[in-house]
Amino acid sequence: MELYKIDILIEKYFQGETSIAEEKELRSYFSSQNVAPHLEQYKAMFGYFTEAKQQEFTQEIPQQTKKQKVMWLSIAASVVVFFGMIAFFMVNTDQPVNQKELGSYDSPEEAFKETQKALALLSSNVNIGVESMNYVHEYSNSKQLIFNK
Question: Is 46 exposed, middle or buried (0-12, 13-18, 19+ CB in 10 A)?
Fold first, then answer.
């Protein structure tokens, strides 16, 4: 009867359904000398588990703080940001501002022509996007035909 119970416990163990008490029973069975021949293959596995449970870690772990590394990284990041800001302001403050670059025009006809150019550019880019959406629509239709059968 006990051998039948051990077989059931082994099946439950490999399905992950055993309780702690049942696992203790399995460990004690496989640590004894009288193990059934067809269960001999599991003896090494349960023996390893009992040995691994008794092992202790005796090596000392060095307590190194990462505070110094963080401090140096924050200083380096601050220096990079500081030099980036200096470079940005030096490049942008030396150039005189041209009225044409600001988009202001003296005559309404000239402003109208420039607005038409800008809207034409915008329209061409939007049309490219709309054409790309046609491909997505075709892909969607094809996917619907294939996967809804």
Answer: buried
Report the b/e string of 99-116 with b at 16+ CB within 10 A.
eeeeeeeeeeeeeeeeee
Structure tokens at 32: 């004894």
Q: What are phi and psi of 137, to 5 degrees?
A: -65, -45
User: pLDDT tens-digit profile of 59-89?
Assistant: 787 776 666 777 888 889 999 999 999 888 8
pTM for this predicted structure: 0.36
**So where are the chain's domains?**
2-54, 119-149
pLDDT one-digit tens code per residue, 117-140: 989 998 888 888 888 787 788 888
138, 141, 142, 143 alpha-carbon torsion, rounded to 10°? 120
**Is there a contact between 6 and 39 (Cβ–Cβ < 8 Å)?**
yes
Higher per-residue confidence, 26 vs 52: 26
H/E segment holding residue 50: helix 43-54
